[in-house]
Design a protein that fits this description.
By secondary structure, the chain is of the alpha+beta class. The protein has 2 domains: 9-24 and 233-456, Up-down Bundle (Ferritin); 70-154, no CATH class. The chain has helices at 9-20, 102-111, 147-154, 160-169, 254-282, 287-313, 331-359, 363-390, 396-414, 422-426, 433-447, 451-456, and strands spanning 74-80, 87-93, 118-121, 128-137, 140-144, 183-186, 189-196, 206-214, 219-228. The strands form 2 sheets. Strands 1, 2, 3, 4 and 5 form a 5-stranded antiparallel sheet that branches. It has a 4-stranded antiparallel sheet with strand order 6-7-8-9, with helices on one face. The relative contact order is 0.14. Residues 1-27 form the signal peptide. This is Ferritin-like domain-containing protein.
């Protein structure tokens, strides 16, 4: 049984206002001056020019070009999400195409129910859903459920796409575009350029890595470079799958950076809500939920303009987010993302906006944040309402997993808040480290039961 609660915008607003407290006596706003930048040695980088191949594959065709050491007729990546009918995430080939007894082959393939697999990350610090491979090779039907078994199944690794698939199953992402170059033949195998982190939240530093995949399928980390330190205090809202925070130039002022990152995150939320609306409609959700998701996307367009104006006021230009189009997902994937991005991240974003609306020393920022706080609280309520609709449609195992992830993400947030720049606290009204911890602690019992226990684990 899920621990979800169907919170309304009114109840969330009352909760946030009660913990944020009364409007303080505010001193006149002053931007002050930023200290001169330090003279620092340049950060190490990875030379992208040495990469010669594009090993990218879309999520919908992740197995495209992947070759088993012993060729197969059919290869599929399944999501182990507790359903009676396994979900095929992507596949290549034709099941049982060369089987002597196709009926028996298909029956055996359909009967495979694995409970372990490779980690398919949904959020950096918390939990994962397992994926595993199934295949047919003439009359042989089998599965691959561990990274060691995957290395054995794919060896000898003969091409960059197979090497890149191995790297992705180890928890790394590939930066993909038509012009991307992220692989090269090297020694007895391939070097793959990959990344981790999305730049928003503690533990989400954006890093690039060079990993070597040997002919026998062993993945070895060769180099790691920090590209951009994450903002541990960003009120992330609903981050779409595949989004990586770019942020403004390094010479931006603390206030400029704060609002530029907020503008980029607001802009990224637009396709996230449009995708949610599309998926809710596809799965027959109530029309009111679909409409509210579309309205939330329109809200985020307005928020982007507001945050962009503030970023430019403080001398920073927001980056335009690149969010790849993704196919419609199953109910479990929708529910899991909603638990993380909606019930935790959006809810904290609404709480932080409520704090800014009362504590920003700049009256113009307070006015903007009052409108944004109202909208973000509506978006948080939408997330809880989506959870109340979708989670009863899942199995008990799926609901238990989602409850656990929701608590783990909230627990990570409880211990992951860092100290913002003093100008961001005073002028923009963002909560200090101590205040953010107090606010989160005050709402955790109501919103995320069990998060304190998960924090101690």
């Amino acid at each position: 049984m899920s621990m979800r609660a169907n919170h309304s915008a009114a109840s969330l607003s009352a909760l946030f206002l009660s913990v944020v407290g009364p409007i303080p006596l505010l001193a006149a706003a002053s931007c002050g001056s930023d200290p001169a930048p330090e003279n620092r040695a340049p950060e190490p980088t990875i030379d992208h020019s040495v990469m010669t191949e594009n090993a990218c594959a879309s999520d919908a065709r992740r197995l495209e070009g992947v070759r088993a050491g012993n060729p197969v007729d059919y290869l599929a990546l399944r999501r182990n999400n507790g359903t009676r009918d396994p979900e095929v995430f992507t596949s290549e080939g034709t099941a049982c195409a060369n089987a002597g007894d196709q009926a028996t082959c298909m029956q055996t393939l359909a009967s495979i129910r694995e409970t372990t697999g490779f980690p398919e990350r949904f959020c950096g610090p918390c939990s994962s859903v397992n994926t595993y491979l199934v295949y047919t090779r003439r009359d042989e039907v089998g599965s691959v459920t561990s990274l060691d078994a995957l290395a054995t199944f794919l060896r000898p690794v003969r091409d960059a796409k197979t090497a890149a698939f191995l790297v992705r199953q180890h928890g790394y992402d590939l930066a993909c575009s038509e012009q991307a170059r992220n692989a090269r033949a090297s020694g007895d195998g391939f070097d793959i350029l990959a990344g981790t982190g999305d730049g928003c939240g503690s533990g989400q530093d954006i890093k690039e890595h060079i990993l070597h995949v040997s002919k026998d399928g062993q993945v070895t980390l060769q180099q790691t470079v920090l590209v951009k330190a994450a903002d541990p205090n960003c009120a992330s809202g609903r981050r779409p799958e595949g989004f990586v925070l770019t942020g403004p130039s390094d010479d931006a002022s603390p206030l400029g950076r704060f609002f530029a990152e907020a503008a980029e995150l607001e802009a990224a939320s637009v396709p996230a809500f449009l995708r949610l609306a599309e998926e809710l409609a596809h799965h027959g959700a109530p029309a009111a939920l679909v409409q509210r998701a579309r309205e939330a996307a329109r809200d985020e367009i307005r928020h982007t303009a507001m945050m962009t104006s503030l970023a430019r006021r403080f001398g920073a230009e927001p980056s335009v987010p690149e969010v790849p189009h993704r196919p419609v997902r199953g109910l479990f994937e929708i529910a899991l993302e909603n638990a993380i991005e909606g019930c935790v991240h959006e809810t904290y974003a609404a709480l932080q906006a409520t704090h800014q609306a009362r504590h920003a020393s700049d009256p113009h920022i307070r006015k903007i944040m009052r409108r944004i706080a109202k909208d973000e609280t509506q978006h948080s309520a939408l997330a809880w309402n989506v959870a109340a609709w979708v989670e009863p449609l899942l199995s008990d195992e799926e609901c238990a997993h989602i409850d656990r992830v929701r608590c783990e993400v909230a627990a990570f947030l409880l211990k992951g808040v860092a100290e913002p720049h003093p100008d961001v606290v005073r002028i923009a009204g963002a909560p200090s480290q101590a205040e953010a911890s107090r606010l989160l602690d005050a709402v955790a019992g109501e919103l995320w039961p069990g998060s304190h226990r998960a924090q101690m684990a």
